[in-house]
Design a protein that fits this description.
heterodimer, A: 148 residues, Sufe protein. Chain: A, 3-stranded antiparallel beta sheet, globular, B: alpha/beta, Aspartate Aminotransferase, domain 1, 2 domains, 7-stranded mixed beta sheet, 13 helices, 40% helix
Chain lengths: 148, 408
């Protein structure tokens, strides 16, 4: 295993200079997630358009470089995308970490986290933000809003 | 005790990790197993396996004898009588059994349980929930600035309403050691019992339940070189006799009718169902192994390595070591590297063959008090040596350099 493959410069850059950090003023939904096994905390705000487009998102939290960098990269990737596309980003990223065929064109900077697949214990760090996002949209859809 | 010879008794330690010599310094989480323990478990299954107590044939009698011999070995480790040792799945089950069996018996409105904010969740939650169940008060001993539980602080919260004082002997986070004998005197003067979480002490130092005047002592097999899934609860005979069973089922009964039952004496009344016989045999072999080496010698070695590590870590710029500022008293050293999250650090150390724990160590209230989300923890044991300390220190220094480099 190689540390350089995991802690790439782009990963550390997102960790130290997170994009979309903070809170949204009027989120459609907010989700707080806590990873009890490591103590990582993540708060995610999502703002959806009427037509089900992710107009904006923001995060705040406390955790390792992987969980925080992944949050920054993920929001970068899904802003302006339809929910369905955003879900495909999540699926592709999870495929990448499972070393399965993944649609890399969807991933952007997230692709730099590929090395995490060598560290099974850290996969949950990389996917924390996506679990929060999936919880948020599941809840929105369960509420049966117009956000399709 | 020859360090190299001792290390070679542990087959797993001879296997490289990530192409490097394995530096296993996470024994506070679980200890590695020596050949004698592996052999004892295997021998039991190959030669003596049968259910205990019920068979009339010779094989079953041997299985029962093995199980009871193991109980005697575990009892001898803490200087108890065999009848005072209940086999459980581990410290967590021991403390839960106790909070149900004894806590529910003595707690109620107007009474209180005293514990500390530095407890492992397994010695906090059973008492927290027992207090809630019974309408009793849960009180906390104030820690001093080193995170230590002092006898003065215990005296300040114990009163005539106190029924149980439940404290760890050695903190799994800070490595602090509590003066158990003094705490026992304070508890007993108030008419309370002292419950000791011995998960981090029994494997590492001499623990004599009579010298320390302990009423209940919980500990785990797997942290003392025994198998997982086996542990023990020591209880003073007089107190065990007052406790009703907690688990009802086979082999803990005397006579059963459809509407009533009478139960065996302690400790068997607390061991309903077929026990973990092979686990007990392994734990008994581990207890013998530790006593053959000598608990004083193990403790001396632990403390020497922990001090060497703490001193070395402090000399690395940007490393914070938590816990006592002076000499370490136990095998545990908890630390952080500035600007590097403990999980990132642990991943980097892993690449150097070094296994440390990173996280909140099942101790969230204490971590909040230290104002850190997570820390790295190195913990030593009898199979560690100076080479492990050097490997740890070199890996920490290299990890620090690595993260400073990639962070540009």
């Amino acid at each position: 295993m190689s540390l350089d493959e995991v802690y790439r410069q782009v990963v550390m850059d997102h960790y130290q200079n997170p994009r979309h950090h903070g809170h949204l003023e009027h989120p459609t939904l907010s989700v707080g997630l806590h990873n009890p096994s490591c103590g990582d905390e993540l708060h995610l705000d999502v703002l959806l358009d009427e037509d089900g487009t992710v107009r904006d998102a923001a995060f705040e939290g406390q955790g390792c470089s992987i969980s925080m960098a992944a949050a920054s990269m993920f929001i970068d990737r899904v802003r302006g995308k339809k929910l369905e596309e955003a879900r495909r980003v999540v699926e592709s990223f999870k495929d990448l970490l499972r070393r399965k065929e993944a649609d890399r064109s969807l991933l952007g900077d997230l692709e730099a986290l590929e090395g995490i697949s060598q560290f099974p214990a850290r996969v949950k760090c990389a996917t924390l933000v996506m679990n929060a996002f999936e919880q948020a949209i599941d809840r929105i859809e369960a509420e049966g809003g117009d956000h399709k | 005790m020859n360090p190299a010879a001792l290390r070679s008794e542990f087959p797993l330690l001879g296997r490289p990790e990530n192409g490097k010599r394995l530096c296993y310094v996470d024994s506070a989480a679980t200890a590695q197993k020596p050949q004698v323990v592996l052999d004892a478990v295997r021998r039991y299954y190959v030669e003596d396996n049968a259910n205990v107590y019920r068979g009339v044939y010779a094989l079953a009698a041997r299985a029962t004898q093995d199980y009871e011999d193991a109980r005697a070995e575990v009892a001898a480790l803490v200087h108890a009588d065999p009848e005072e040792i209940i086999f459980t799945r581990g410290t967590t089950e021991s403390l839960n059994l106790l909070a149900r069996g004894y806590g529910d018996l003595v707690l109620g409105p107007g009474t209180n349980v005293v514990t500390s904010p530095a407890e492992h969740h397994s010695n906090l939650l059973p008492w927290q929930q027992a207090a809630l169940r019974r309408g009793a008060e849960l009180r906390f001993v104030a820690l001093d600035e080193d995170g230590q539980v002092t006898k003065e602080a215990v005296r300040a919260v114990v009163d005539q309403g106190t029924r149980v004082v439940a404290l760890a002997h050695v903190s799994n986070v800070l490595g602090t050691v509590t003066d158990i004998r003094s705490v026992a005197d304070i508890a007993h003067a108030a008419g309370a019992v002292l419950v000791v979480d011995g998960a981090q002490s029994v494997p590492h130092m001499p623990v004599d339940v009579h010298d320390l005047d302990i009423d209940f002592l919980a500990f785990s097999g797997h942290k003392m070189c025994g198998p997982t899934g086996i542990g023990a609860l020591y209880g003073r005979a007089r107190l065990l006799a007052q406790m009703p069973p907690v688990y009802y089922g086979g082999e803990m009964i005397e006579e059963v009718t459809l509407t009533s039952a009478t139960f065996k004496e302690a400790p068997w009344r607390f061991e309903g169902g077929t026990p973990n016989i092979a686990g007990a045999v392994g734990m008994g072999a581990a207890a013998r192994f530790l006593r053959d080496i000598g608990l004083d010698e193990i403790h001396r070695r632990d403390v020497e390595l922990a001090n060497m590590a703490a001193d070395g870590l402090r000399r690395i710029d940007g490393v914070t070591v938590y816990g006592p500022k002076g000499q370490r008293q136990s095998a545990v050293v908890t630390f952080n590297v500035d600007g590097v999250h403990a999980h990132d650090l642990a991943t980097a150390l892993d690449a150097h063959g070094v296994c440390v724990r990173a996280g909140h160590h099942c101790c969230q209230p204490l971590m909040r008090r230290l104002a850190v989300a997570s820390t790295a923890r190195a913990s030593f044991y009898l199979y560690n040596d100076a080479e492990d300390v050097h490997q740890l220190l070199d890996a920490v220094a290299a990890a620090k350099e690595f993260f400073h480099r990639v962070a540009g």
